[in-house]
Amino acid sequence: MRALLLAAGLGTRLRPLTITTPKCLVTIQDQVLLDIWLERLTQAGIESFLINTHYLSGQVEAYIEGSLYSDKVTLVREEKLLGTAGTLISNLKFFERQDGLLVHADNYCLANFHDFIQAHNQRPPYCLMTMMTFRSETPDSCGIVDLDAEGVVVGFHEKVVNPPSNLANGAVYILSPELMHMLETDLQEVSDFSTEVLQRLVGRIYTYETLEYFIDIGTPESFDKANSK
């Protein structure tokens, strides 16, 4: 299986830390965030990575060049940000018509990826993808999901006051070849995965809830919390 790590964002909520350092290269528990993803996904059997860059891309390129995983990583620089779905659609050939991971690499995630992949392999046959979920301590700042009895998404609540639960979308997905074909043929013009793709797939998204540590480090407060764990 291959993985696309989305790592091109500006990290504006994490300033001033990200004024001189791209968000994917900040350090959590004495380890670079991007390296955490590469290490844990490699341990789960992921063989090849595509990482998009934009903001302070030279730093990311230099880091990967000196990384233990340099031979597994392909970098693609976006002169203009394409959006989460735009980047995916532009690089669908990378997955070679097989199941593939799409990861928002700005989260600190200690999930068991072996179990995540196994859950995807055992998903209901009508589901086109599997979404990782987690329990958020700040659900009003997250995308909250409603599930049916089979663990399939039947609704979303995007950053609403007093959401009905704290089960949040972790923005880590395994996509089926069928979904990738749909993106290539029917959704070529979309740019945002959350608002323009997921909404069309309600009733066809399976979920896997991680009980391990998972936190969006997008703010100084959450970044400090991840480092004090």
CATH superfamily of the domain at 2-123 and 171-190 and 211-227: Spore Coat Polysaccharide Biosynthesis Protein SpsA, Chain A
Q: Give the CATH topology of the domain at 2-123 and 171-190 and 211-227.
A: Spore Coat Polysaccharide Biosynthesis Protein SpsA, Chain A
* CATH architecture assignment name of the domain at 2-123 and 171-190 and 211-227: Alpha-Beta Complex
* Total count of helical runs of at least 4 residues: 7
CATH class category of the domain at 2-123 and 171-190 and 211-227? Alpha Beta
Average pLDDT confidence is 93
- Which parts are unreliable, with pLDDT below 50 for 5 consecutive residues or more? none
Binned strand content: 25-35%
Describe the largest sheet.
Answer: 7 strands, mixed
**Terminal residue distance:** 31 Å
Q: Roughly how many Å is the radius of gyration?
A: 17 Å
String of helices and strands = EEEHEHEHEEHEEEEHHEEH
What gross morphology would you assign?
globular
User: In total, how many beta strands?
Assistant: 13
Structural class: alpha/beta
Order the strands across the largest sheet as they lie in space. Answer: 5-4-1-6-11-8-12
Helix content: 25-40%
